[in-house]
Design goal:
There is one protein chain. The protein has a two-stranded antiparallel sheet. The protein is about 65% helix and about 5% strand. α2 crosses α3 and α3 packs antiparallel against α4. It contains four helices and two strands; from the N terminus they run ββαααα. It has a domain of about 55 residues. The protein starts with 10 loop residues before the first strand and ends with a helix. The radius of gyration is 22 Å and the shape is flat. With about 150 residues, the protein is mostly helical. This is EamA domain-containing protein. It is found in: Membrane. Pfam families: TMEM144. Keywords: Membrane, Transmembrane, Transmembrane helix.
């Protein structure tokens, strides 16, 4: 979707004839009102995909293992909680800071776990490259947050 068509930038004409951002229509609603429809849509779509797969497998004579559905369902529930916190954070901090932290934060946590807990990055050259990349990402986040304030 182009920036000109995204809800944050799109304009519409109201009854008085003036242009205003569409997002101004929803000032009285909670930011988390979007969570249930989003999660329900994902649940319905993924259920339809699984049912289609199971039907094709049944017609083809394949065995369909149902045990992997439980961990996938649990991870979807965890995702929904994280999505709720993400939407709340973005609405509280603003789009430029909130989305930057929501997009970069998990990557930083995962990469720090990779280096210090799991020791996946252990060679000197890899650690130097990681440190440079981490520093550039930190500079980018600081630039974005200072530009928005």
């Amino acid at each position: 979707m182009s920036p000109a068509m995204s809800p944050a930038f799109r304009k519409e004409r109201n009854h008085g004839g003036e242009h205003r951002p569409i997002c101004a229509r929803h000032k009285g609603q909670a930011a988390t009102d979007v969570v249930f429809p989003q999660c329900l849509g994902i649940y319905i779509c993924s259920s339809a995909i699984y049912l289609l797969y199971a039907a094709v497998a049944k017609l083809s004579g394949w065995r369909v293992p149902h045990a992997p559905i439980r961990p996938a369902y649990l991870s979807g529930c965890i995702w929904a909680v994280g999505f709720t916190f993400m939407i709340t954070g973005i609405s509280s901090l603003g789009f430029s800071i909130g989305y930057t932290l929501d997009a970069v934060g998990p990557i930083v946590i995962a990469s720090l776990l990779s280096v210090f807990v799991f020791k996946e990055i252990s060679e000197r050259n890899q650690l130097i490259l990681y440190s440079v990349a981490f520093g550039l990402q930190l500079i980018g986040v600081l630039c974005m947050s200072s530009a928005s304030s």
